[in-house]
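During the reporting period the student researcher (J.K.) took over the structure-prediction task from the postdoctoral fellow and processed the backlog of single-chain submissions. One of the processed entries is reproduced below for the supervisory committee.
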Amino acid sequence: MPTAPQNTDELYQALEENDRRPYGRTRTVTAEELVDAAEQLAEPVPLVHALFELQEAYTYGSEPRKSPVVFARLLNLFDEQPDVFDERRRHTLFWRFKWVADALRVLPEIPLSGLRQWLTEMRDRYEKAGLGLQPYYGQAYQLAAHIGEGTTLAYELWAGRSRTGLSDCEACEICERALYHLAAGDDERALNEWEPVLAGKESCQEEPARSVSYALLPLLRNGHVDRARELHLAGYRNCRRNPSMSGEVGRHLEFCALTGNEARGLELLAENRNLFGEVDSPLDLFDFLTGAEVLLQRVESLGHGELPAAGYAGRTWTVAGLRAEVRGRADDLAARFDARNGTTAHSDRRRARLDRAPLVEALELTLRTRGLDEVAPAAPVTAPAARTAAEVPESLPELILRARTLDEQGHPDARACWAKLRTLAASRDYAHPDDPAVGPLAQLRADLLSDEASRTGEKDEFAEAAALHEEAAGLYEDAGAPGDAAVARACALLATAEIPAETSVEGAGGAEGAEGAGGADGADSVGSADGADGDGGAAVKAAALASAHAAIVRLHEEASGLAPHQEARLLRLRATALGMRLQTSGDEAHVAPVLAEADLLLAFATRHDLGGQISGALLLRATTHALSGDLPAAVTAIDGVLDRLKAHGPAWHLPRTLALRGRIQLGLRDVQAAQADLAEGLRLAADWPADVVDTARLHADLAEACMHLGRPDEALRHLTRSAELELRRGSRTDAYCAYSNAAQLCLDLGRVEDCIALLDSLLTEPDVAAGEVDDRLVAQLRLTRARALHTGEDLKAATTEFVALAAESARWDDDPGSHAMIAAETAVLLGESGEFGRAREAAEQAIAAHARAPRYEQLSGCLRELARLQAERQGPEGLADALANLADVGRIADEARAAEYEAQGRSLDTALAYEHGRVNAYAGEYEDALAALEKALALLGEPAPEKGEDHAGEWAECVRLTAAVEGIYLERPAPALNRLDAAVSRLTALGRTEEAEPLSSLANRLRDGE
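J.K. obtained the following structure tokens:
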């Protein structure tokens, strides 16, 4: 706290600010400081408020040992100065007797007699104050349930009594009743009892998160698998990393262990590593550790005891090591509670949890379903079992020669050979064969560097790839292999040309022509801006590629003694450089040079019977037609390639070729044909390593086709599969982009919890947490998550994330448009939270950023919504500020008009007039509201078939509001009825009966005199 409050007003303001903080050390320390400050003021009422805040911080910050101490001070104040406690403060004091009972119960060092003595104190105080005893009996039952003795009688004495004003909330009492039935083995009755809480009808600070954690296993046992999945996602999010809900986290870990989601369980354990050191409640810690042990025990039983696990700070842990540590600590806690209570209840409950068998073999909890094998460090993706890969030779000379032969052919199995050779050559006892056919060790090291460089280039790490190719070229020269050296230097030249603007080498990007599947709308995503122009970068890239082509040609001309496969590779690199230049520039003048180089390659490959290069040349021609926009010619060419591949091979070119034809078909808007080609390509790709045939791209393209076909759930599966494949092969940026699109699609489909769970998983990835991933990409992930939180009605969490993003994006000098977008959305959320002062500050930031990078429609919409919220919440008092926001909207509309900007929906002027009507109506200025709404109607114009479906709905709503203001609030029913009847007739004549219905209903109300 910067400075201590100097008076009561400052103290109350500081208490209010602290109340907005999440529970944890920061809030608790601040509360302690505020108690010190309140004592200095020497006024009892502020001190009582400060002590209440401190007790709350201790209670929900999982520091139960300190809560009773604070309450003792409050009780002394009450006894000494009862007049200080008005009705509200008195109610709070008596309510918190239960908090102390809870705090004492979770501490095994407090003797049982002490717990019963406190309950006696509570009963005596309640009776003396004339208060009902149901809350006392509730605490007596909870103690009995904790001990495991006398539960039935205690339950009946509590549950049979009428509630009082000091009873626990409905949600908490529902949970206690459900847990009683659950302990009795009656799952069905427990679930019926829980239903109002699980359905969101009853809630409080701890609910429904507490009930959800207990209900997960009963739901599974009773066949409600989908409900359990849904509640796990939502419930876990509400308790993660929270020390006061560590027991709930433990039950979510147990749920993962018993549903075949051990890998997710380890991920959640890592996310909650803080709980090992921050939970001060022994009972909560006992529940957490037992749940963690269920998970660790399951992982170890599956043979993965050596996997890394997140545990106590200060050392690294394996699953087996952490399990042993957790078991010892949890056993000790159980023994301490049982010794205090004189029963074996806690040891028995712990054993029952550890002895549970999995309830579901494999339940897909999230869109990132992974097995334990994928938790280990990523290994290269190998060919699946659909095709039996050629056996890797055991003899070292045979292996080296086999790898080179396969590499010359471009065969996918070459990678397995190089991988084995890399391992062998790296061993300390490696002895290189003394065989002229194999060549010297320098040549093998060059081969391995070339393979590594190719894989690095596939990850778009072009600078490193270029360096590796250059190093390989030097080794080839040392080994007396000038032809291989020339090829390596040509590869380095091409990789170097790609460094300024990293784009893919091969494909028909220009032929796609359709929207990406599930991608965030350009206007709503980080990094997009109206009028963004990349022509300068494209020109630089095109020039670099042209220079690379010229250098490769010179290299080719100067090289001598080239083998056919080496010369073909140089010709292929020449053609590829020009193809990439065409893809970058889109210049028609660049088409003919690509075709000429492709023809040279085709003629040479045909002359030397190089099948892979023949199909490569034909594919390059087809790609060039696609890039030039001649899609029919591209389809004809690709059909020829497919015919040849089916007849002569190589078979591993088929998946990529079908993928290209699928993308071209998407460009031609023949979605059915595209889907068929892509699906066949994916089927054939199963025979080859995923990274060689680019299976990830096939899944991404299929996602796009499925979106066009109206199959979004199928598209989502392809997107997540594409992302996971990219992640496995190390293309993490591409993977996160694909996941970002998947998350946005989830949100569009209304699968809010799936969206949040996916993004939570991504944002805890080590490279993201360490800041190694592009900050704008991470910001996009966080932005989508914040929007999902808002859609899921978690306004507090959404607002916190938006405020943080707005602060970060304010520093993006190169991207003011994104800051304008984020700050505008932040203003709306702050408005929804009732913080209109902060909302206006955010809006001013958005306006300033908009001046540098216009976001007309977004900013207009957000400011209109902010104005509406302020007028709706504050009425006449908020009118001036609401109108100030609308004045800004008017200026934005003027700017848009001057810039000849056309809105995607209704015009900005029409939207502004309509909002003026609503705002004035909320504030009771009905004449001004009517005038504004009539202006909006005039701007809209009457509906007509050529104006589209949305227009009729907007016009009808504007008519309805105008008539309501006129007929109800201004008490002029006659003109309002005339307006409504004419509108109903107009809409009916257009066949828009659905839009006419609300107008007819309002007309009937006016006729009935309501």
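The committee noted the following: The beta strands are 308-309, 317-318.
J.K. will present the remaining backlog at the next meeting.
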